[in-house]
Write a structure and sequence with these properties.
The protein has 381 residues and is of the alpha+beta class. The chain is built from twelve helices and 17 strands. The strands form three sheets. Strands 9, 10, 11, 12, 13, 14, 15, 16 and 17 form a nine-stranded antiparallel sheet that branches. Helix 1 links the parallel strand 1 and strand 2. The structure holds adenosine monophosphate. Adenosine monophosphate (AMP) binds next to strand 14.
Length: 381
């Protein structure tokens, strides 16, 4: 990214993947006067509906990705699952943020764990698994209960198996296709939190308030910002995220997912080198949203203010709520301090993120109660 000159209004950003993150980026690009072209095989994908252009193709198609790159000033990602070799090919055509080297590292959970270890950042006990002997040795090292995770391709709990008893071990690995894995000690966390930040090419950074995340069936359900945590937790989480972003020489938004233990300890779970679901409250609650900030960073523009004036809760709307037809969305409109964001998906499949609701208020506990009441009113279980 060192060759990047500041790009202002009129410049074009290319996004590999046309999902909801690209869509919200494209919507924010509009008011900045930036143009967005997305790469996606679906001409009706959420981002294509609001973007200036579309290149038809999958993000694993290097030829299509390079065709996109030839039309834009800078390339960024909607997903970290873009193959690193595709990004390497794209880098020969246009500047990319994040770059292929950082992406290759993030895509491999083992490389992530090693990076955290090299940086001496706190994490759960883990071991590498590549055959039955290392699987057994790994379990002996981390202890029960444990979590087995594929090194590649996992998200939202996919590619993961929990191990409660030693005799579950082989079946758990078989359920993951005996893929190369890491095995981790299960963390009896008090809360899940995330540090969402942005880093510019000159190394300057900005952080949003710490996010408190509640998962249901392995998928993010609600995020509350700022998190309810002791005052020292936010700055400590920020410092961890700063260390990772600096080591990766990251440009753009980065999210560090963390476990907060009852004794106040923070353990790093995962690095996401992109705008993140737990950063969605910034869109509507902060002076600068994570989507605008990401665009500012990849365009070499100064980072914006991340101040959030009032507490906010984001409630994810999954396709499950559409199982018997559209849910009664008028229930969202009936709440004056709720904002509905739909992602324009042409199919509301179960487990798929279809939209979210942002609730703004003064009392965090009340906002979470309101989010839960709304979820139930929309047919959530
Ligand atoms: P991940 O794909 O690593 O982000 O994991 C998805 C979710 O699974 C996390 O947000 C946690 O709720 C849970 N999880 C993953 N790893 C662990 C662990 N070692 N201990 C406890 N819960 C975990």
């Amino acid at each position: 990214m060192s060759d990047l000159r500041p790009l202002g209004p009129g410049a074009t950003v290319g996004v590999l993947g046309g999902g909801q993150l690209a869509r919200m980026m494209a919507l924010e690009a509009r008011h900045l006067g930036l143009r967005v072209i997305v790469l996606d095989p679906n001409p009706r994908c959420g981002a294509a509906q609001v973007a200036d252009g579309l290149v038809l193709g999958h993000f694993s198609d290097a030829e299509a990705a390079c065709r996109l790159a030839a039309q834009v000033d800078v390339v960024t990602l909607d997903t970290e699952h873009v193959p690193a070799e595709v990004l390497r090919a794209v880098e020969a055509v246009a500047p990319c943020a994040p770059g292929s080297e950082a992406l290759a590292l993030i895509q491999d959970r083992l490389a992530q764990r090693r990076l955290l270890h090299a940086l001496r950042l706190p994490q759960t006990r883990w071991a590498e698994v590549h055959d039955e002997a290392s699987l057994r040795a790994g379990l002996a090292e981390v202890g029960l209960p444990a979590v087995l995770k594929t090194r590649r391709g996992g998200y939202d709990g996919k590619g993961q198996a929990r191990i409660q008893r030693e005799d579950h071990l082989l079946a758990a690995w078989a359920s993951l296709g005996q893929a190369p894995c890491i095995i981790e000690a299960y963390v009896p966390f008090d809360r899940e939190v995330s540090a969402v930040m942005a880093r510019a090419a000159d190394g300057s950074t900005r952080h949003w308030p710490l996010a408190e995340n509640d998962h249901r069936r392995h998928v993010l359900h609600t995020t509350l910002t700022p998190a309810r945590a002791e005052p020292s937790v936010g700055p400590r989480a920020r410092a961890l995220a700063e260390a990772v972003a600096a080591r990766l020489d990251h440009v753009g938004v980065l999210c560090l997912e963390l476990f907060l233990l009852s004794d106040g300890q923070l353990l790093v779970n995962e690095i996401a080198p992109r705008v993140h679901n737990s950063g969605h409250t910034s869109l509507g609650a902060s002076v600068t949203s994570q989507f605008e900030q990401h665009l500012r960073a990849v365009c070499g523009l100064p980072l914006g203010d991340t101040t959030q004036a009032r507490p906010a809760v984001m409630l994810n709307l999954l396709g499950d709520l559409w199982r018997d037809g559209p849910p009664p969305l008028e229930r969202v409109f009936a709440v004056p301090h709720a904002k509905l964001h739909l992602y324009g998906k042409d199919e509301a499949r179960p487990g798929r993120k279809v939209g979210h609701v942002l609730l703004l208020g003064d009392d965090p506990a009340r906002l979470l109660d309101e989010a839960e009441a709304l979820y139930r009113a929309l047919g959530g279980k």
